[in-house]
Amino acid sequence: MALPGYKNFEGEDWIDPTPLPKEIPPVDEVGSTGAPLKSASFFIGTHCKEYNEDFMLCKDETRDPKHCLLEGRKVTRCAVDALQKIQSQCLSEFRAHWNCLDYKNQEFGRCRDQEKPLNDCLFKAFGWKKNVPGAPANKPQIHERVPLTQ
What we know:
The protein is an all-alpha fold. It has four helices and two strands. Strands 1-2 form a two-stranded antiparallel sheet. The longest helix has about 35 residues. It starts with a strand and ends in a 24-residue tail after the last helix.
């Protein structure tokens, strides 16, 4: 695990040399910056819901981080799988949306024009629909609302 700015190693990442236990399978990191992850976040959340819930239940059981490494690895693998699927079918729409987020301070509301084609593409390709958790069930989702002024 790399910890930037570790006080004894200025300018270098510190990597913990302790190997993981053999029962914890290795997994690659997601390897993405914030904007692509934010762009895909609702779809990752839906696609990986079961793994995320298992991980959160595990974390509630104990405060020992080693206890949930296996569940955390499953979440990471699922997120990587979702990102690969998004890129395989909707790369141009995905890139346009996350570039907009990157240039507009990570605000979804300022990138609705780029978000709609991405949502449409993912629905056509995988049947994935963006649902904002906690949104009222009897009202349209915020990204589906028609603007007051065009």
